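Before going further, learn to read the protein records used in this course. The integers have meaning only within a learned vocabulary of local backbone shapes. The record below shows the convention in full.
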Amino acid sequence: MFVKLLTIFFCDVPDIDECETGTHNCPPDFICQNTPGSFRCRPKLQCMNGFIQDALGNCIDINECLSTNMPCPAGQICINTDGSYTCQRISPSCGRGYHLNEDGTRCVDVDECSSSNQPCGEGHVCINGPGNYRCECKSGYSFDVISRTCIDINECRRYPGRLCAHKCENTPGSYYCTCTMGFKLSSDGRSCEDLNECESSPCSQECANVYGSYQCYCRRGFQLSDIDGISCEDIDECALPTGGHICSFRCVNIPGSFQCTCPSTGYRLAPNARNCQDIDECVTETHNCSFNETCFNIQGGFRCLSLECPENYRKSGDTVRLEKTDTIRCIKSCRPNDVNCVLDPVHTISHTVISLPTFREFTRPEEIIFLRAITPTYPANQADIIFDITEGNLRESFDIIKRYMDGMTVEGQSGKMVSDVEGVIEFHQVEKMGPVVDVSTVRQWVVHFSSSDWDSGSPALV
């Protein structure tokens, strides 16, 4: 076998520029462009964008719409033009109840229910559907086949007593519950619960809440007003029918209470704050009696009296202090061989001071002083005690009533009227011993009456 070898030799020969040498064959409308070992004919006319040049130099339009990359966005079609193209929106024909979307590429449903012009009217609810809508009655309405409209359902009338605890109020398409006075609506909107009116302080003083209402009441010393039932008015205790018995002297009304007062001088208020206690100036030594005078306490004051025993009498010790009187007794003290003194039947002389109120008037006789004497132990019916007023009863304001108490003879001196009484009344106590023997013992009582501004009016015992 024989192998034939081919050997190629390259020579370093300079390139011949046919364009310069004019050995090219380019047409007149072309420009010669030299290339290594050859040449190229290029058209003098350059094609614009959107065109392509053929071998003869002609400009041929490029159809961009036939390119693989769609030059137009979705929803538009490409239309080729000379040297370019245009995109035109696709306009499909949408049926009733539809319209083009924002891109204009497809038909979408029209929501008729979202329109400001409600298509269904009052009492209806609009329900949208694909390409259409329908009207139904709202909750609380029912369809009337005659008027072919939705009418309100009166739930309060249809379900009486079942919806609300107290009162039901119908509204268009619904209802609401209310409560009677004194109650408030609960959180469930149906039940009623008690309203505590006292939280708003409707009363002037005290308030008590009760179920469905409230009650005003007042503190002690006040009473509820009959006009509004809310305000508290002061009770004038002093003006009540029992007001005269609240205080022993004078009642002064104050807001919510009262105060008792006593005469300005000679008295002080008792611990019970109602009664007046006489101040005994003779005991407290607040009097102004001289050394030779005797201080006699009277209701609301004192009297300074110079009481001396007459001849043949001497004072019996100290002054006798009784409940409402001061008494000084003079006992007969005869000198030796003084027969007249011995035969004088007056054995004792007693001075008593009694204070009487100036403002009291007796509508009937009242006992103001007791004269007490003990009957001696003589045989029965053998002794008698007689009291008699001897001096001072000028206006016949006093009288004597005799009675027996616990074995004692008690003479009660009664006053018919006490007004501006000031003076001295003397009366004798005569004890007659036996019907045969004329033996008498006489005791002389001197009662000094004086006026005072106030007194309890109870009788004095001497």
